[in-house]
Amino acid sequence: MLMNWKIVVPLLAVAFIVTSADGMAGGVMDADMTDQATRDALQFAVAEYNKGTNDLYVWQMAKVVKVQKQVVAGMKYIFTVQMARTLCRKGGVEKDCAVHQDPAVTNQCTFEVWSRPWLGAIQLIKNDCQP
Hints:
It comes from Oncorhynchus mykiss. The structure is a single chain. This protein has a five-stranded antiparallel beta sheet, with helices on one face. With about 130 residues, the protein is an alpha+beta fold. The chain has helices at about 1-20, 35-50, and strands at about 30, 55-70, 75-90, 105-115, 120-130. Helix content is about 30%, strand content about 40%.
Protein backbone atom coordinates (compact mmCIF):
# COMPACT_ATOMS: atom_id res chain seq x y z
CA MET A 1 0.00 0.00 0.00
CA LEU A 2 2.79 2.43 0.86
CA MET A 3 4.53 1.63 -2.43
CA ASN A 4 1.39 2.61 -4.39
CA TRP A 5 1.40 6.11 -2.85
CA LYS A 6 5.03 6.59 -3.87
CA ILE A 7 3.95 6.07 -7.47
CA VAL A 8 0.54 7.79 -7.43
CA VAL A 9 1.58 11.07 -5.75
CA PRO A 10 4.37 11.93 -8.25
CA LEU A 11 2.06 11.03 -11.17
CA LEU A 12 -0.62 13.33 -9.81
CA ALA A 13 1.95 16.10 -9.34
CA VAL A 14 3.11 15.74 -12.96
CA ALA A 15 -0.50 15.75 -14.20
CA PHE A 16 -1.20 18.92 -12.21
CA ILE A 17 1.87 20.69 -13.60
CA VAL A 18 1.03 19.71 -17.18
CA THR A 19 -2.59 20.89 -16.96
CA SER A 20 -1.70 24.16 -15.25
CA ALA A 21 0.94 24.98 -17.87
CA ASP A 22 -1.73 26.08 -20.38
CA GLY A 23 -3.61 28.11 -17.79
CA MET A 24 -6.54 27.19 -15.64
CA ALA A 25 -9.48 25.66 -17.47
CA GLY A 26 -11.95 28.48 -18.04
CA GLY A 27 -9.29 31.03 -17.11
CA VAL A 28 -8.16 33.95 -19.24
CA MET A 29 -5.17 33.21 -21.47
CA ASP A 30 -3.25 35.02 -24.18
CA ALA A 31 -4.67 34.68 -27.68
CA ASP A 32 -2.93 34.55 -31.03
CA MET A 33 -3.74 37.21 -33.64
CA THR A 34 -2.81 34.76 -36.41
CA ASP A 35 -5.92 32.74 -35.51
CA GLN A 36 -8.73 33.55 -37.96
CA ALA A 37 -11.46 33.42 -35.28
CA THR A 38 -9.54 35.96 -33.17
CA ARG A 39 -9.08 38.30 -36.14
CA ASP A 40 -12.78 37.96 -37.02
CA ALA A 41 -13.79 38.82 -33.45
CA LEU A 42 -11.61 41.96 -33.51
CA GLN A 43 -13.01 43.00 -36.88
CA PHE A 44 -16.53 42.56 -35.48
CA ALA A 45 -15.65 44.67 -32.40
CA VAL A 46 -14.28 47.51 -34.54
CA ALA A 47 -17.38 47.46 -36.78
CA GLU A 48 -19.69 47.56 -33.75
CA TYR A 49 -17.64 50.37 -32.23
CA ASN A 50 -18.08 52.41 -35.40
CA LYS A 51 -21.83 51.74 -35.44
CA GLY A 52 -22.13 52.94 -31.85
CA THR A 53 -20.24 56.22 -32.10
CA ASN A 54 -21.81 59.56 -32.98
CA ASP A 55 -18.63 60.50 -34.82
CA LEU A 56 -18.96 61.38 -38.50
CA TYR A 57 -15.68 59.62 -39.23
CA VAL A 58 -14.68 55.97 -39.27
CA TRP A 59 -12.35 54.66 -36.58
CA GLN A 60 -9.97 51.81 -37.22
CA MET A 61 -7.66 49.70 -35.11
CA ALA A 62 -4.16 51.23 -35.18
CA LYS A 63 -2.34 48.93 -32.75
CA VAL A 64 -3.10 45.75 -30.83
CA VAL A 65 -1.89 46.16 -27.25
CA LYS A 66 -3.12 42.88 -25.76
CA VAL A 67 -5.31 39.97 -26.86
CA GLN A 68 -6.75 37.36 -24.53
CA LYS A 69 -9.42 34.70 -24.70
CA GLN A 70 -11.49 32.72 -22.24
CA VAL A 71 -13.50 29.57 -22.79
CA VAL A 72 -17.02 30.24 -21.55
CA ALA A 73 -20.25 28.98 -23.12
CA GLY A 74 -18.42 29.72 -26.34
CA MET A 75 -15.33 31.92 -26.52
CA LYS A 76 -14.87 35.35 -25.00
CA TYR A 77 -12.18 37.50 -26.62
CA ILE A 78 -10.70 40.43 -24.71
CA PHE A 79 -8.93 43.04 -26.84
CA THR A 80 -6.98 46.07 -25.69
CA VAL A 81 -6.31 48.17 -28.79
CA GLN A 82 -5.40 51.67 -29.90
CA MET A 83 -8.14 53.06 -32.13
CA ALA A 84 -7.48 55.98 -34.47
CA ARG A 85 -9.91 58.23 -36.33
CA THR A 86 -9.56 58.07 -40.09
CA LEU A 87 -10.18 60.73 -42.70
CA CYS A 88 -13.10 58.70 -44.14
CA ARG A 89 -16.66 59.68 -43.38
CA LYS A 90 -19.16 57.06 -42.27
CA GLY A 91 -21.19 55.79 -45.19
CA GLY A 92 -18.50 56.84 -47.66
CA VAL A 93 -17.26 54.70 -50.54
CA GLU A 94 -13.54 54.80 -49.64
CA LYS A 95 -11.90 51.43 -49.08
CA ASP A 96 -8.53 52.65 -47.77
CA CYS A 97 -8.79 55.25 -45.07
CA ALA A 98 -5.76 57.20 -43.91
CA VAL A 99 -5.43 57.64 -40.16
CA HIS A 100 -5.10 61.12 -38.62
CA GLN A 101 -1.50 61.79 -37.70
CA ASP A 102 -2.60 63.78 -34.64
CA PRO A 103 -2.26 61.57 -31.53
CA ALA A 104 -5.16 63.50 -29.97
CA VAL A 105 -7.52 61.55 -32.25
CA THR A 106 -6.76 58.15 -30.74
CA ASN A 107 -8.50 56.14 -28.06
CA GLN A 108 -7.38 53.15 -26.06
CA CYS A 109 -10.23 50.67 -26.09
CA THR A 110 -11.06 47.44 -24.35
CA PHE A 111 -13.48 45.28 -26.27
CA GLU A 112 -14.98 42.00 -25.10
CA VAL A 113 -16.58 39.83 -27.75
CA TRP A 114 -18.61 36.71 -26.98
CA SER A 115 -18.66 34.24 -29.83
CA ARG A 116 -20.84 31.13 -30.09
CA PRO A 117 -20.20 29.93 -33.65
CA TRP A 118 -22.45 26.88 -33.43
CA LEU A 119 -25.37 29.29 -32.93
CA GLY A 120 -24.09 31.81 -35.45
CA ALA A 121 -24.03 34.29 -32.55
CA ILE A 122 -21.44 36.96 -31.83
CA GLN A 123 -21.90 40.04 -29.69
CA LEU A 124 -19.90 42.91 -28.27
CA ILE A 125 -20.41 42.66 -24.51
CA LYS A 126 -17.97 45.39 -23.43
CA ASN A 127 -16.89 48.54 -25.21
CA ASP A 128 -14.77 50.84 -23.04
CA CYS A 129 -12.76 53.54 -24.81
CA GLN A 130 -10.72 56.33 -23.25
CA PRO A 131 -8.83 59.15 -25.03
